[in-house]
Amino acid sequence: MLALHGAACSTVSVHLAARQLELSKRQVRDMACELVEDGLVRMSGDDVELAPRSIADRLAIADLAHAYAHNRSMLLDVLQALRRAS
Fold first, then answer.
1. Please, what is the angle between helix 14-21 and helix 25-37, to 10°?
2. Cα–Cα distance between 54 and 28 in angstroms, integer?
3. Residues 8 and 20 sit within 8 Å (Cβ to Cβ)
4. pTM score
5. What is the CATH number of the domain that holds 34?
6. Residue-wise pLDDT tens for the chain (86 aa)?
7. Are 39 and 57 in contact, with CB atoms under 8 Å apart?
8. Are residues 20 and 35 in the same domain?
9. Could you count the other beta carbons within 10 Å of the beta carbon of residue 50?
10. Do 22 and 41 belong together in one domain?
11. CA distance 33 to 55
12. 47/81 Cα distance (integer angstroms)
């Protein structure tokens, strides 16, 4: 999601995202499909576009991107703690 937030027109191809994130195209597609189900992105062919349905989601994504840009390690620690808790 953060890669999409920083991309031109909030859109990136599956191929480019896979290369940037060092993941397989399949993994990127699977993640994108989950975000489509959550109403956060749209997929068209090989392109994934950040398209949150609500203003609240848009603001939350912007806040997340801001936090990541300013304190990446803290945000990653929080995400790891959430992953362990679930």
1. 110
2. 23
3. no
4. 0.77
5. 1.10.10
6. 888 988 899 999 999 999 999 999 999 999 999 999 999 999 999 999 999 999 999 999 999 899 888 888 888 888 788 889 87
7. yes
8. yes
9. 22
10. yes
11. 21
12. 31
CA dihedral of 72, 76, 82, 83, whole degrees rounded to 10: 150
pLDDT at 25: 97
Task: Give the per-residue pLDDT at 59.
Answer: 94
Query: Does residue 73 share a domain with residue 37?
Result: no
The residue type found at 14 is V
Q: Say whether both 43 and 76 belong to one domain.
A: no
Structural domain that includes position 69: 55-85
Which pLDDT score is estimated for 86? 77
**How many domains does the chain fold into?**
2
Model pLDDT, residue 82? 86
Cβ-based neighbour number of residue 17 at 10 Å: 22
